[in-house]
Structure formats: C-alpha cells, structure tokens
Specification:
The complex is a heterotrimer of chains A (about 70), B (about 270) and C (about 375).
Chain A (H helix, E strand, L loop, with lengths): L2 E5 L9 H5 L5 E2 L7 E2 L10 H5 L5 E5 L4
Antiparallel strand pairs in A: 1-4, 2-3
Chain B lengths: L1 H7 L15 H15 L6 E5 L14 E4 L5 H11 L4 E7 H5 L3 H10 L4 E6 L34 H8 L3 E6 L3 H13 L4 E6 L3 H7 L5 H10 L1 E3 H4 L4 H4 L3 E8 L5 H17 L1
Parallel strand pairs in B: 1-2, 1-3, 3-4, 4-6, 5-6, 7-8
Antiparallel strand pairs in B: 5-8
Helix pairs in contact in B: 2-7, 5-6
Chain C lengths: L6 E4 H12 L1 E6 L6 H10 L6 E4 L3 H12 L4 E6 L1 H16 L4 E9 L5 E5 L4 H6 L8 E3 L4 H18 L2 E7 H5 L1 E4 L45 E3 L13 H16 L2 H4 L2 E4 L6 E4 L3 H15 L4 E6 L1 E3 L3 H10 L2 E6 L6 H8 L4 E6 L8 H11 L1
Parallel strand pairs in C: 2-3, 2-4, 4-5, 5-8, 7-8, 12-13, 12-15, 15-16
Antiparallel strand pairs in C: 1-9, 5-6, 7-14, 11-13
Helix pairs in contact in C: 1-2, 1-6, 3-4, 10-13, 11-12
The chains are: A alpha+beta (about 70), B alpha/beta (about 270), C alpha/beta (about 375).
Chain lengths: ~70, ~270, ~375
C-alpha cells in the first residue's frame, strides 16, 4: 500500500520540520526549500509529518481511501 | 488533514500569519485534533483568546470565536461559560497574555474550577511585539528588554495553577504532538478548570537572539530537555536537573463552578413553585 | 387596575429592579462603595429568574465577563464607581468596537483616586465620555431620582440592545443611597427592546454588516453562526481589516450609529423656558436643587428656566443652541469643576454667557446657592 503525500505549496513556509523528523526520511531538502517527497515508498502512514506541520500543508492519504 | 480542514478550519483565512517554523501552527493543529478526538460540537464550542501571536489562533477556527483584550481572555471566557454553561469554552493564550497581565484572571479561574480548557502557548517570549521577555522566560535568556540576560525567575505556571485550584494540569511539547493531543483531550473532558502548558518555540525572535538554531533545532531541544513525569519518578535529582517535566501533572475532581450555580437556580425555582 | 401602593426604595435598589424589569440575566461586578448594593440585590434576585451573578476578581474582569455573557445572548450589566470605571475603560472600549450591548452603572463618588467613597460627585462625566482611548461614541444617562433611576435603567438596556453599544448610567452617591417613595410601573406597561437577530442562515450572515440604521444584526454564541469577534479594526465579516478605507469607515459608522438615531437617545426636560431670559442647565442631583431654585426665583418675578438633560452623552447640542438664542445667560451647576460647562459653552457660542456654579467638597449644591447665583448674574 503506497501512501500518497500531498504538500500544499501555497501554505508551506519551508520550515524543514517534516524533512528533519520523518522517521523514514521520506522528505528531502533544506529549510527554506519546498520539501521533496523523495521516497514515498518508505512512508509507513504514521502521519507524524501531518501532526508536526505548522502550516497544515501536508496530506498523507493511504491508497484505499483515495 | 483535509477532513480536519473542512470541518474545523476557516480555510479562506489560511495560510496563517505565523512565521515559518513557529510552533503555534503545530499547537493549533493539536487543539483541533483534540477537539475532534473528544467529539466537541463546533456549534456549541466557543474559543476565546487574548492578544499576542497565539491569540490569533481562534481566527482560523470555524467555531464561535472571541479575540479579546490582552490578558483578559479567561475573564471574557468566564462570562461566556457562566452565562451559557452548555457551551464548551476553550481559551488559547500565550505566556505573556496568561502569566503576566492575565495572571490574576488565571489564578481566579482556577480557584473557581470553572469548566474552561486553557491551552497556554509557552514560547518564552512576547513574539507579536518583537521579542520582549515574559514571566515564563528562563533566567539568563536574552530578549529585547533583557539585553544583559533575564534576571527574573520564571513561574512554574503549572504549579501555580495547581496551587490556585485547577483540577487538570498538564504540560506537553509541540515536538511530541501525539502526547500533546492526548493531554489537551483530557483537559477538554475534565469537568473543571484545565490548564495545558505547551512548550513551543519562536524561532524568529527568541530562537535567533538566544542562538538556539532553527525551528528544527528548537524542537530537538524540546525532546532532549523534557522528561515524562512518570519516568521522572525513577530518576535522581541529578538526572532531573534542568529538565522540564511533561505529561499529566495533576488531576482531581472538585465541584464545577457553573454547575454549583445551576443548583442554586434550580433550588430557588423549586421553592418558587411551592 | 388597583391603585399601586408607593414603596420606599433606595436608588441602587431601583437600579437593580429596573435592570430586572429590562430583562437583565447576567451581572458581573466587584464590591465598591457606593454601588455595592446593586451587586448584592442582583446576587439575590438574578438566580430567581434563571439569571446568573458572579463576583469577579476585579473590575477589569467584571467588564470582560459582561461582554462574554452578552455575546451568548444574555442582557448583561456591571456596576461600580469612579475607580472601577478607570479599570473597566479598556474593555468598555472593546464593547464599543465589537458592538456588544451592555450596561455599566457608575455611582459617582468624590475623586480623584480613592477620594471620598461615601460622598457624591459628578467628577466622572468626562471619563464617561473619554475614559477609554480612541474615537468612540458613547451613550451616558443621568437620572435624578429613585423612580427615574428605575426607568432610566430600563432605557439604558433598551438603548444598548437597540444600538449594540455599551451604555453608561451616571448616578451619584446621593441618588444611589437615598430612599424615596416610589410607585413602580407595571411590568406589562414597560417597553422592552431586544437586539435584532439575524434573519439569514449562518453562511449568509455578516456579524458587522449594518442595516440602514447603521446597526448590525447580532447572533449569539451557540446558535451555529460561528462568527468571529475581535477588538482589531474589522470589516463586515468580523475579521481584521486594517486598510485605511475600512478603518475610516468603521470608526465613522460607529459614530453615525448614534448620531443618526439621536432623537431616539436624547432625553431632555425643560421647565419654565417659554419666556425665560435666563436659564439653568443642570443634571443629576444638582438638577433637583436647580428646579426648586428656579421655582423660587419665578415667585420673585425672575424669568428663569431650567434645562435638565437625562442624556449626557451624546450631548444635547441643539437644545443648548436653541436656548442660547433665547436667553442671555446659562448657569451650569455641577458637582465638579465644570466638566459639562465647556460643552454648554461650545454650543451656546456667543449667543449666551455660560456661568459655572461648582462644588467639589462632597456636598450637594443647595437650592439657595442656585438662587443666589441667579440673582448675582441678573
């Protein structure tokens, strides 16, 4: 089951929190840049990135409820 | 996230005004998730705030919202709750708003044990006004009004609330968002005065001036400098030095203020009929 | 209808009873001489009618709680004296900006500062007008008897509901504490005004979109309107809008809301003014001494009249302008150093000379003093 991760580019303020704290290193980039979903296949759907995103800019959707 | 946004947020007001990496967005997310977890009806829930960065939070929430004067959120909220006890009342406030100018209202709301859930966004600084120190700024830290290092001692606002009579007091960090959501949820469910202190961060003025690095670094700092209150029971004085206790710090039951008053009304109405 | 028996009633009690007659359902206050009786009586009476009382930790909190309660739909009130008014001023300004109906009773005592808690004064008149910062309108009413305190308290609630504004009731220690025989009107005969409620569903509701009279309809918390209230300059949506255009518009609308409807607000009595060559302009306690003085002077053939405003703010400018064309002099007795004198001069301009009669010793102005002043200026 591959998690689909969407980032709202209009709201994301590029703080780098998702990049730093994703337990699986799914995101890549530096603070000041839009995070890149580099390894979506690694995503376990834990949604910590959603919880910790200050901008409500990340949506993690598992395939079944697409 | 999308369901939460649709149900609880005024999406047209986003993106919010907070700086990149500011912890307030994370805290607001935790508040909304706690409301969702408990299942509060937004129509019967009023969110009140004072003045400051944190106090802009209700503006983004699709509830009855009240953005009041600096320090007075709890006094306004007391009026809302006491006049219409059926409403759930949540106060979102900051360290300056609640512990400085609002301190008197905080201790009295706790003393009354009125059913209000207060979430205190503690980023140790007055952010909105540009970086002055607050009653929760640690000693020694720098601020625009403490250029030689803060000589004040900070409150332990949780102990203060417990001593004043609050019946649920907890402290969490934005780093451990899952725990924070749980703590806020229990605060909402508490039929009495609840205070949840949120250790959050201001990278723009507090972090930069005190060389604490980026928002990421400040969240790592939260992880390394906090200890769960249960784990702390098995730790030595030495190990606990400088650590901040997080988790549920106090929970008790005491008659709730507005319910006590409703009993008076009911008694008088019964006597009135005799 | 059976002839109602007069009862002996204290001014503060009449204020509390008038509030109950007006439909007050929430009181938040803090003990202060000389207004505490209002709180005490309402703490006893409110729960009997399903209303709620709370003694807050200070006057700032009291004013805040009143606003919070009003936003849930309750008619809400507080009562205090000068020192409390000083503390309440910031939140009173919030009520003006957020257009929240509420009544604030100021039983004036000698100031400044702690002053003379049990002595009457009219030293808070300008505080009632400008106590809080910024260009804001205000309505302030001043009864001069126990019975009138009852009636004017009802009027204060009606005006606050009608115009979504705080209304200040200006008593003084004498009016608050004296007792008089009173025959109160029957509840059915009293006109009660409630705030205009929205007639549209939540999605179409703008909390600050005014009707043509300048007054927006007001929803209550808990009804599903999920609206936002803030002290920040806001637009019709209730959300902050600090653009120059909107900022100018909001401040002017708040003022026009009162000025455009001034004839619903102004209450002024006139005695013996038809052929008057001289006038006395007095309000509150001094207006009673002034009336007996004017009667006495009339007996001695002096053509003097009395203008007695009940509405202090907005100031009855037209009344003064008109009177100044008729009389040569206007005497203004006040228990302060001339706080409304300036306003009378402002509108009398050069048409009439305005002369103050001022006591700040905590004693009432006596009729004889007014008679002497009338003769002095003849």
């Amino acid at each position: 089951m591959v998690e689909k991760i969407k980032i709202n580019k209009n709201w994301c303020k590029k703080c780098g929190i998702c990049i730093a704290f994703c337990p699986k290193g799914v995101f890549e980039g530096q603070p000041g840049q839009l995070p890149k979903v580099a390894k979506p296949e690694e995503c376990t759907g834990c949604k910590l990135c959603e919880l910790r995103c200050p901008d409500f800019a990340i949506e993690v959707r598992s395939d079944d409820n697409e | 996230m999308q369901e939460l946004l649709d149900k609880y947020f005024r999406k047209d007001k986003l993106p919010h005004i907070w700086c990149p990496g500011c912890g307030h967005g994370i805290t607001l997310g935790a508040v909304v998730r706690a409301i969702d977890k408990v299942g509060l009806d937004p129509i019967k829930t009023t969110v009140v705030s004072g003045i400051g960065c944190s106090s802009r939070a209700p503006g983004y929430m699709k509830f009855d919202t009240l953005h009041t004067t600096h320090g007075r959120a709890l006094a306004f909220a007391t009026g809302v709750k006491h006049a219409k006890p059926e409403l759930n009342v949540i106060v979102l406030t900051g360290d300056g708003d609640a512990a400085a100018i609002g301190g008197n209202h905080l201790i009295h709301a706790a003393r009354r044990n009125i059913d209000i859930t207060t979430v205190l966004f503690n980023n140790s600084i007055y952010g909105m006004t540009g970086g002055q120190y607050s009653p929760l700024t640690p000693t020694g830290k720098l601020a625009t009004t403490a250029p030689y290092g803060n000589i004040d001692q900070a409150f332990d606002i949780c102990k203060l609330a417990i001593a004043a009579g609050a019946t649920y007091v907890a402290r969490g960090t934005v780093y451990n968002t899952t725990q924070l959501i749980g703590l806020i949820s229990k605060g909402i469910q508490n039929k009495g005065f609840s205070l949840i202190e949120v250790i959050t961060h201001c990278p723009t003025v507090y972090g930069r001036r005190n060389k604490m690095g980026t928002a990421v670094d400040m969240m790592k700092w939260q992880k390394e400098n906090t200890v769960n209150v249960k784990a702390a029971e098995k730790m030595t004085e030495e190990q606990l030095k400088g650590k901040i206790l997080v988790g549920e710090l106090y929970s008790d039951t005491r008659p709730e203020y507005t319910e006590q008053y409703t009993k008076i009304i009911e008694r008088l109405q019964k006597e009135g009929q005799q | 209808m059976s002839e109602k028996k007069p009862i002996l009633m204290q001014g503060n009690e009449a204020c509390a009873k008038g509030a109950l007659a007006a439909g007050v359902r929430f009181f938040a206050g803090y003990p202060i001489t000389p207004s505490s009786e209002i709180a005490e009586i309402l703490s006893e009476e409110l729960p009997k009618v399903g209303g709620r009382f709370i003694q807050m930790e200070d006057e700032i909190a009291s004013m805040a709680a009143v606003i919070g309660a009003s936003l849930t739909g309750s008619k809400a009130m507080t009562a205090t004296s000068g020192p409390g008014m000083s503390l309440k001023s910031e939140n009173l300004g919030y009520a003006s900006m957020a257009e929240v109906p509420c009544v604030i009773v100021d039983v004036q005592r000698v100031g400044p500062s702690t002053g003379g808690p049990t002595a009457p004064s009219q030293g808070d008149i300008m505080q009632a007008r400008w106590g809080t910062h910024g260009d804001h309108p205000i309505i302030a009413l001043a009864p001069n008897s126990v019975k009138e305190t009852y009636e004017v308290t009802i009027k204060a609630f009606n005006l606050s509901e009608r115009f979504r504004t705080p209304v200040i009731l200006l008593l003084d220690e004498v009016i608050g504490h004296m007792r008089e025989k009173v025959v109160l009107p029957d509840q059915e005969s009293i006109e009660i005004i409630n705030r205009k409620k929205p007639t549209v569903p939540p999605e179409e509701y703008f909390p600050y979109e005014p009707d043509e009279d300048g007054v927006p309809k007001m929803a209550s918390y808990g009804e599903g309107y999920r609206f936002h209230v803030t002290g920040l300059t806001h637009d019709k949506t209730g959300f902050p809008n600090l653009s120059p255009g909107n900022t100018d518009y909001v401040i002017r609308r708040l003022h026009e809301k009162i000025e455009k409807n001034i004839d619903e607000i102004l209450m002024v009595e006139e005695y013996f003014m038809d052929d008057a060559e001289l006038a006395v302009f007095a309000y509150g306690s001094p207006s009673r001494s002034s009336l007996s003085a004017v009667r006495k002077a009339r007996e001695e053939g002096i053509k003097v009249g009395l203008i007695r405003p009940i509405t202090i703010w907005p100031f009855p400018a037209e009344t003064v302008k008109k009177a100044a064309q008729k009389v040569s002099k206007i005497i203004v007795p006040e228990m302060n150093l001339g706080q409304l004198l300036g306003e009378v001069e402002r509108y009398a301009k050069s048409d009439a000379e305005v002369i103050g009669l001022n006591r700040v010793d905590g004693e009432l102005i006596t009729p004889q003093e007014v008679v002497d002043k009338i003769k002095e200026v003849l």
